[in-house]
Specification:
463 residues
Length: 463
């Protein structure tokens, strides 16, 4: 399979903004699910938190098939004038938006429990395992086709994270102010109808963002169609022996476990423990400011000390802040939001470069094997991220059930203290494990990444 660099306009701001809009679109459905799906089904639909968590874990077994399948479909698709990857974004943007909206069908809240559980499973699998997979894998794989330069890919990673941050800001800041109401006892309660309308608006916004991504990005590296016969056994063998891929997969799983556990519990700790749903908006806004500030120096810092090295530092900062929060066990919401912003400093430093790290893995695999399989490798990485999402939601769901959380006990003192402890302990453990995984499992330090880039540049210049 050949990879050549097309003679087209230079990489620039239009590409970075276009790629940013891609993850803006992704996270209009992904962050919405991470922040509010568990809350919606426990508080509006009356489904137990543990069952929602089990559903998310079951879906990941389906993803093990659909993610790799989509990776193969992308690798084996024939490029057109627009490229190999971006056409899939246009094809799948409508289906993923519709599937996301259907997950929040509050008009079914009075249906029998069996039907509600069926609808929950059906729509979640349709969205996450089929439609989201269909758009996210080609989108993620496209980064290595937009530019072959490691520094420019790090810029794409940073802009992708900015896109995700903007979506998180819209969802995390605006929605809590709109979708909650105060009940007769003065408690902040989630409105099913308002949640459904919010999901509709997010779905429409996702389509707009995907189309902007499609029209604004240019695939400069021509990635040819894979024609070799697919061997599942060979794929498994390659994955097992690919240390850089194993390292980034474990890192992604642990990052999402930590990040989304914090996100999932945000929908509980502010309205239930602190008694102020608007606290989630304040925390999200603070996190956005922190991420945008970090974006001003993270790329330069990563180019200087290395992406792996920066990720370790960031993970340890986040873990330390959460441990401090657990020890303080504060009832002052503003102190907790301040600690959350420190967590975001560490998390942003890693998030801003992680998407460039997967392109480093793709390059490392090509150097070692002589073959380039962007879609397949990214599909394995995407599966790990979704597994991390499921683990965070599943663990949160199980732990909420363990502390006795239901719609009826949601504001009892013992339950709300349990919510605080889960919010601190689970993500702190995730960040500590992430730092260890990057240090001892992921092999692509700055020296190795630069060496691989030089080798591939020489290879392409000799063709």
């Amino acid at each position: 399979m050949e990879n050549t660099v097309n003679a087209v306009k230079k990489f620039g701001m239009k590409d970075k903004l276009g790629y940013m809009f891609g993850d803006f679109g992704n996270d209009f459905t992904f962050i919405l699910s991470s922040m509010f799906l568990l809350k919606f089904y426990t508080d509006v639909m009356g489904v137990s938190a543990a069952l929602v968590g089990v559903m998310m874990m079951v879906a990941r077994f389906v993803d093990a098939i659909t993610d790799v399948t989509m990776g193969q479909i992308v690798d084996r698709s024939k490029p057109n004038k627009k490229g190999k990857f971006s056409p899939w974004i246009r094809r799948m943007c409508g289906p993923v938006a519709l599937a996301s909206f259907l997950m929040y069908a509050s008009w079914f809240q009075d249906m029998p429990m069996g039907f509600k559980v069926f609808w929950m499973f059906f729509t979640y699998l349709l969205w996450g395992s089929i439609c989201y997979t269909g758009v996210n894998i080609p989108y993620g794989s496209m980064a290595s086709a937009i530019t072959p330069e490691p520094g420019e890919r790090t810029q794409l990673s940073s802009w992708r994270t900015i896109g995700a941050t903007l979506a998180s800001t819209v969802i995390g800041v605006v929605l809590p102010l709109l979708i909650y109401y105060t009940d007769a006892d003065g408690n902040s309660v989630l409105s099913g109808t308002k949640m459904m309308l919010a999901a509709l608006v997010c779905s429409i916004a996702a389509i707009v963002c995907y189309l902007l991504c499609y029209h604004m990005t240019t695939e400069r590296v021509k990635v040819e169609q894979v024609t070799q016969k697919f061997s599942f056994g060979k794929l498994i063998s390659e994955l097992v022996h690919n240390r850089s891929l194993i390292g980034i997969v474990v890192a992604a799983l642990l990052l999402l476990l930590a990040q989304l556990s914090l996100g999932n519990m945000g929908a509980y700790i502010y309205p239930n423990y602190f008694g102020n749903a608007a606290g989630l908006s304040l925390a999200t806004m603070g996190g956005t400011v922190v991420t945008l500030l970090c974006a001003t120096f993270t790329v330069k810092l990563a180019n200087k000390i290395g992406k792996k090295e920066l990720g370790i530092i960031g993970a340890l900062i986040s873990a330390a802040a959460l441990i401090v929060a657990f020890v303080l066990h504060t009832h002052n919401m503003y102190i907790f939001v301040g600690v959350y912003c420190v967590v975001m400093i560490g998390m942003s430093m890693f998030n801003l470069v992680i998407w460039a790290m997967i392109t480093d893995v793709i390059d490392d695999t090509e150097v070692k094997t002589g073959e380039r399989s962007d879609g397949t490798i990214y599909s394995v990485y995407s599966f790990a991220r979704k597994l991390g999402q499921a683990c965070s939601s599943g663990l949160a769901g199980v732990l909420l059930s363990v502390i006795g959380y239901t719609a009826a006990t949601a504001f009892e003192p013992k339950v709300v203290d349990g919510i605080y402890n889960i919010t601190c302990i689970v993500p702190a453990a995730g960040f500590i494990l992430l730092a260890l995984a990057l240090k001892f499992l992921y092999p692509l330090d700055k020296k190795t990444v630069d060496k691989n880039a030089d080798a591939l540049l020489e290879k392409r210049n000799n063709k």
